[in-house]
Amino acid sequence: MTTREEFATLHGKWALVTGAGRGIGRAIALELARAGACVVCNDIDPRTATETAALIHLEGHTAMPYTADVSDRHAVQRMVDDVVAATGRLDVLVNNAGVEPSASILEMDEETWDHTLAVNLKAVFLTSQAVGRVMKAQGGGAIVNISSIAGVRNPLALRAAYCASKAGIYGFTKECAREFAAYNIRVNCVCPGVIVTPMTEAARRNPAIMERWRREIPVGRLGTPEEVARVVRFLASDEASYVTGQAYFVDGGKAMH
Questions:
Q1: Fewest beta carbons within 10 Å, which of 16, 115, 147, 205?
Q2: Which domains are delineated in the chain?
Q3: 33-87 pLDDT per residue, tens
Q4: Active-site option among 66, 162, 170, 183
Q5: Full-prediction pTM beyond 0.85?
Q6: 183-209 burial code (b ≥16 CB/10 A, e <16)
Q7: Which residues of 129-148 are buried (b: 16+ CB within 10 A; e: fewer)?
Q8: How many helices (H) and strands (E) does the chain have?
Q9: What is the CA radius of gyration of the chain?
Q10: Is 162 a catalytic residue?
């Protein structure tokens, strides 16, 4: 029987995961580390970034926390420069950092819109540009962006800024994949559905919402961060060597047409 370890093709690679302090980002960082990667755990909160790195260390793998606001161009460039100075390379970038404020379009203030687009979408551009230059110089790499079914097929009520940002990631991924293909850099995105994370915690306490989700999701349950992380690991690995410009839905069938 083929073991999971035989598919762990990230040995010797360095990966940067943004928003790695909790939820899906933490699960991705752990999954990549278990697959053999050395992981830079980025988060704007130094405490959660350090916690994720510590969990990786406890399992006997290599990780380093890095605190940076990925919506800030200077902070991103400083982070990439520091990581490359310490490691010599960056083989995998996972753009996961995100926020999900709730506000109607008629009541939303400009600051909320700008902040959401900056963290969720602008940051993907900034990190892809900075890391992409490193990957081009070293001869290749893999970028995985975390979008959402909310940005592609299933918009969320009172989440216009979030939906717009995730739709932007979907479109950016495809053009980034087209441009970066010449440099042997693959770019894909993952679109999670309803996942058990801190972002969905409040909604999960509402029985009516939970019942509606169960009806809408063909497999009849919510997803886990680990299920998203396993798809990211595949796309980051050499197993996906002929996959680029694609969007993988991890949603239990919710977005099926």
A1: 205
A2: 4-247 (3.40.50.720)
A3: 999 999 999 999 999 999 999 999 999 999 999 999 999 999 999 999 999 999 9
A4: 162
A5: yes
A6: eebbbbbbbbbbbbbebbeeeeeeeee
A7: ebbbebbeebeebbbbbbbb
A8: 9, 7
A9: 17
A10: yes
